[in-house]
């Protein structure tokens, strides 16, 4: 027996073949969906986007610089001022005319009224994690509410934004999914969440002193790909340098999707090289069909093919998000299957982020046992997959899109009752 053979023989066989006899398998259908109003309620997957009631006022962040110039000109204002106005907005994070002292006093107010109307107003701000996390609930012009979360980490400050009010993707573990989609956000409504966070964070709103907002993740309410056009416009405002936009690094901006394959492919062609995150949560169609309803349309194989092609087109390593749910998707054989599916397409192109859930006694959507989580992570790592367990900040904020808004809404309902 060769030395190397002995070594591999000694390696623990962590992976049982597919569902071993007696292995517990909790199914997403074992309980009504999160936030369901009746026990038999089943939200339906819908790609329809409702028409908004009324149009959001025109805003600088909906337009590129040329569009802003044209808008100023149409209003009888000097087009060249669009540059200065944009710099105030994107580099000083302000929409207050009084702070724009380099603009002619007689025109400031009018310019701000034309291109910087108030689009989002704060309903509530909740601080968590010793002031390193701030969750905001915003009200939009038509009374619709969305959330964003600002988080300070050691090496970065991240904002999680909403791209839609509600969501039509109907994931059974997500309370936003049970609301259905109310409407898409405009590009400026997305960008305003970022502008506000960048300003607050620069002004020292998070504990630890002033910080530069470095990362933006589209993991709040909604499926960004359903709001493709406005999300792409918002991405331009985020990564294009001033005066076009904030000039964030493209790799620090993450678009997260449950798997709208044709739009992943389209995003790969936009030439922006933002990071793509895929909320996979299951490597087998059998479970994913139940867990992520959109899987009925695009299967795991097609989704991973598109994600791999995204990597090839942009050079950006794709994040695979995987919420670990006790006895549902946390089996070691699933970790091995996930690793095999990733490795089959190439090496080093994907990074897996297992997301520990909060313990929720009595719910099927609860955290894995520590040993099970460890075995899942070890299986991936032994197969050569870079794996980082997410820091959940005590509230699942970063990875569980949409759940936060409901948490805030529920708390709000509780306090206003
Ligand atoms: S998990 Fe994300 S995609 Fe699924 S319903 Fe919730 S917000 Fe929509």
TrEMBL record:
User: Where does this protein reside within or beyond the cell?
Assistant: Cytoplasm
User: Which InterPro entries does the UniProt record give?
Assistant: Aldolase_TIM, Methyltransferase_A, RNA_MTrfase_RlmN, rRNA_lsu_MTrfase_RlmN/Cfr, rSAM, rSAM_sf
Q: Where does S-adenosyl-L-methionine bind?
A: 222-223, 256, 279-281, 358
Catalytic residues identified in the record = 147, 401
Region described as Disordered: 1-58
Gene Ontology CC, one term: cytoplasm
Q: Where is the Radical SAM core domain?
A: 153-396
Which cofactors are reported in the record for this sequence? [4Fe-4S] cluster
Name the GO terms of the biological process aspect.
rRNA base methylation; tRNA methylation
Q: What keywords is this UniProt entry annotated with?
A: 4Fe-4S, Cytoplasm, Disulfide bond, Iron, Iron-sulfur, Metal-binding, Methyltransferase, rRNA processing, S-adenosyl-L-methionine, Transferase, tRNA processing
Top enzyme class? transferase
Enzyme nomenclature, EC number: 2.1.1.192
CDD domains from the entry? Radical_SAM (cd01335)
Cofactor binding mode and count: Binds 1 [4Fe-4S] cluster. The cluster is coordinated with 3 cysteines and an exchangeable S-adenosyl-L-methionine.
Q: Which domain of life is it from?
A: Bacteria
Q: Which reaction does it catalyse?
A: adenosine(2503) in 23S rRNA + 2 reduced [2Fe-2S]-[ferredoxin] + 2 S-adenosyl-L-methionine = 2-methyladenosine(2503) in 23S rRNA + 5'-deoxyadenosine + L-methionine + 2 oxidized [2Fe-2S]-[ferredoxin] + S-adenosyl-L-homocysteine; adenosine(37) in tRNA + 2 reduced [2Fe-2S]-[ferredoxin] + 2 S-adenosyl-L-methionine = 2-methyladenosine(37) in tRNA + 5'-deoxyadenosine + L-methionine + 2 oxidized [2Fe-2S]-[ferredoxin] + S-adenosyl-L-homocysteine
Name the Pfam families on file: Radical_SAM (PF04055)
Molecular function terms from GO: 4 iron, 4 sulfur cluster binding; metal ion binding; rRNA (adenine(2503)-C2-)-methyltransferase activity; rRNA binding; tRNA (adenine(37)-C2)-methyltransferase activity; tRNA binding
- Principal location: cytoplasm
What does the function comment of this entry state? Specifically methylates position 2 of adenine 2503 in 23S rRNA and position 2 of adenine 37 in tRNAs.
Of which family is this protein a member?
Answer: Belongs to the radical SAM superfamily. RlmN family.
What's the further remark here? Reaction proceeds by a ping-pong mechanism involving intermediate methylation of a conserved cysteine residue.
UniProt xrefs under NCBIfam families: rRNA_mod_RlmN (TIGR00048)
What is the protein's given name? Probable dual-specificity RNA methyltransferase RlmN
């Amino acid at each position: 027996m060769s030395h190397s053979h002995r070594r591999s023989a000694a390696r623990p066989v962590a992976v049982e073949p597919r569902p071993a006899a007696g292995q517990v398998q909790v199914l997403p259908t074992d309980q009504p969906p999160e936030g369901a109003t009746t026990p038999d309620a089943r939200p339906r997957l819908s790609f329809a986007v409702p028409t908004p009631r009324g149009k959001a006022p025109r805003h600088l962040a909906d337009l590129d610089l040329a569009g802003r110039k044209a808008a100023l000109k149409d209003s009888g204002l000097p087009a060249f001022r669009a540059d200065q106005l944009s710099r105030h907005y994107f580099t000083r994070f302000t929409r207050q005319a009084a702070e724009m002292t380099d603009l002619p006093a007689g025109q400031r107010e009018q310019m701000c009224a034309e291109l910087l109307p108030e689009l989002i107003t704060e309903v509530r701000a909740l601080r968590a994690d010793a002031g390193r996390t701030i969750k905001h609930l915003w009200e939009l012009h038509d009374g619709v509410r969305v959330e964003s979360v600002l988080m300070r980490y050691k090496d970065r400050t991240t904002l999680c934004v909403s791209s839609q009010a509600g969501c039509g993707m109907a994931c059974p573990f997500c309370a936003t999914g049970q609301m259905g989609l109310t409407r898409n956000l405009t590009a400026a409504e997305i960008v305003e969440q970022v502008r506000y966070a960048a300003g607050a964070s620069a002004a020292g709103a998070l504990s630890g002193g002033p910080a530069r907002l470095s990362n933006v993740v589209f993991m709040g309410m909604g499926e960004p790909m359903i709001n493709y056009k406005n999300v792409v416009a918002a991405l331009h405002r985020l990564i294009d340098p001033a005066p076009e936009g904030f000039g964030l690094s493209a790799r620090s901006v993450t678009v997260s999707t449950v798997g709208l394959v044709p739009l992943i492919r389209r995003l790969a062609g936009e030439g922006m090289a933002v990071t793509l995150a895929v909320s996979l949560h299951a490597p087998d169609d059998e479970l994913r069909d139940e867990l992520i309803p959109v899987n009925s349309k695009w299967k795991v194989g097609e989704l991973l093919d598109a994600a791999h092609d995204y990597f090839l087109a942009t050079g950006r390593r794709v994040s695979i998000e995987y919420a670990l749910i006790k006895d549902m998707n946390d089996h070691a054989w699933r970790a091995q299957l996930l690793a095999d599916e990733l490795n089959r397409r190439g090496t080093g192109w994907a990074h897996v982020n297992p997301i520990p859930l909060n313990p929720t006694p009595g719910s099927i959507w609860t955290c894995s046992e520590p040993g099970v989580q460890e075995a899942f992570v070890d299986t991936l790592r032994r197969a050569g997959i870079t794996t980082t367990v997410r820091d959940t900040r005590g509230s699942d904020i970063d990875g569980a899109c949409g759940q936060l808004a409901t948490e805030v809404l529920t708390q709000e309902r509780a306090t206003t009752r």
